[in-house]
Amino acid sequence: QQSEVISNRYLFHSQGEQFVPQAIKDTLPYFLGAVDDTHVAKMTELRDLRHELRAFERRLAEHEAVRGGGISRAQALLSEAQDIGLSDPNIVPSTWEDSVEALRRVQGHTVEPEEELAGEGDAFERLQQERLALSEELHRIKDQFAAAAALSSDRNNYSHEASAQLHRLRSIQLFNQGLDADAARCPLCESQLSEVVPAVSDLENSIRLMEQQVRTVEERSPQMDRVIRTLSERMDDAKRRLRDNREALEAIQASNARLRTIRDRAGRRAHVQGRIGLYLESLPHLEDTSDLKLQIDELKQKILRLEEELSDEVVQERLQSILFILGRDMSAWAQTLRLEHSEHPLRLDLRRLTVVADTPNGPIPMERMGSGENWVGYHLIAHFALHKWFVEQDRPVPRFLFIDQPSQVYFPADKDVDGSMEGIANEDREAVARMYRLALDVVQLLNPGLQIIMTDHADIAEVWFQDCVIERWRGGAKLVPDDWLPSTDG
Q1: Residue 128: its pLDDT value, please?
Q2: pLDDT value for 181
């Protein structure tokens, strides 16, 4: 439109409307050929695969959460059942599946009152004995850990002190080995000593012995570190087992506190079995997850392959190559039109949807490129470059470009006298002529692949321009003649 071709903010038609800029950014890579015809289909497939993968991963996470986080709850219920004699207290499942299976047996199990009385409290006693053994084990591991840490500290201190002593003793190597013959003479000033000092050879023997000891200590350092790590892991495991034991004991105590007022033993048993039944009914149906994991792995492989094919890096490389070619045409045409900043390389910025000149002082976008004459010129060269590429690469874009009043900045309507440009400065007339001549050159270059339609007030008195004029709408004439319209006579 007339207001769009002179805009310094918007390069494309309707770019100022909501959602249109993003639509242009999304579709231009396809129309430019940076992505092939299957790209959109592959993007849809990738989106569907990701959605399917998330659904499978949620299912797997639910199963794993029940199996992992549910083991403490299942074992606590089983401990309650064992404490009132509904299950063998010697059965201690190690996995969630085994715990659930034991609870199912408890739910369908009936116990005679005599047997129930005989077995009541066994689980609590077993847990207490287990806690005592775990506490003793934890104390023993702590003592071993403390001893190992102390030994490691002593080893480090010895290694440090021995190394310092070695550095002092190695100074003896500065002196002549022949000094051993007279140990009573000072090796520095050769004066007579009042007492005999150790011979150089004795000191060297001490050096060799100490080096061997330090080397032995340092060689055993990794072994000691492994021992300390192992003891630390064992200590953490003992703490975890103590915590689980405490939770089981607390569950039994809480159950006893709740059931203390229930005198009927059959009622107590029914209460616990009812809680177990409620827990089992709340569990989701958990099938074997091996097939689910296999499906997830296959989906991840498909997604990875599609992501590589649709890699933004690959698309951007193709896009940058195309934009470089467009920029080359734009730079040449900008010099033809003598636009501001035409001496610098130009490029089409698809992120901001504008024309940018790369100068030594940094990029300059179209909105900062001077006056309306430049804005019109940069609109023209950008769209000419795009349509040249569309035609040459046979892209699926309509082969016409419609521009309304590109000369308005040189030839305003108030100076229009039957299209004559006599009242316009020579410099402006030449600029308008260059603009239309460039449009003609582009059409001839791409003939018959592109049609450029321009509506304007300017009427250049040149043969080449007059040959391009198809219609003059003056004196009541209209772009759409009246006889084109349907009759309203019925």
Answers
A1: 78
A2: 47
Q: Which long-range contacts (CB under 8 A, 24 or more apart) does 434-437 make?
A: 434/336, 434/337, 434/338, 435/337, 435/376, 435/377, 435/380, 435/406, 435/407, 436/460, 436/465, 436/468, 437/464
* Rounded average pLDDT per 10-residue block, the chain, 490 residues: 86 89 87 83 83 84 59 70 71 69 72 50 74 84 80 68 64 50 58 62 66 64 73 83 81 66 62 73 59 84 84 82 94 93 93 93 89 90 96 94 89 60 75 93 95 89 91 73 74
pLDDT value of residue 237: 84
Sign of the torsion formed by the C-alpha atoms of 326, 332, 334 and 340: positive
Neighbours of 471 (CB within 10 A): 10
- Tell me the CB-side half-sphere exposure of residue 283, using CA atoms within 13 A: 26
Q: How far apart are CA 154 and CA 151, in angstroms?
A: 5
What is the Cβ-side half-sphere exposure of residue 20, based on CA atoms within 13 angstroms? 10
Three-state SS for the chain is CHHHHCCCCCCCCCCCCCCHHHHHHHHHHHHHCCCCCCHHHHHHHHHHHHHHHHHHHHHHHHHHHHHHHHHHHHHHHHHHHHHCCCCCCCCCCCCHHHHHHHHHHHHCCCCCHHHHHHHCCHHHHHHHHHHHHHHHHHHHHHHHHHHHHHHHHHHHHHHHHHHHHHHHHHHHHHCCHHHHHCCCECCCCCCECCCCCCCHHHHHHHHHHHHHHHHHHHHCHHHHHHHHHHHHHHHHHHHHHHHHHHHHHHHHHHHHHHHCCCCCHHHHHHHHHHHHHHHHHHCCCCCCCHHHHHHHHHHHHHHHHHHHHCCHHHHHHHHHHHHHHHHHHHHHHHHHHCCCCCCCCEEEECCCCEEEEEECCEEEEHHHCCCHHHHHHHHHHHHHHHHHHHHHCCCCCCCEEEEECCCCCCCCHHHCECCECCCCCHHHHHHHHHHHHHHHHHHHHHCCCCEEEEECCCCCCCHHHHHHCCCCCCCCCCCCCHHHCCCCCC
Do β-strands 400-404 and 451-455 pair in parallel, antiparallel, or remain unpaired?
Answer: parallel
Which residues have a Cβ under 8 Å from the Cβ of 450 and sit 6 or more positions away? Answer: 387, 388, 391, 399, 400, 401, 442, 443
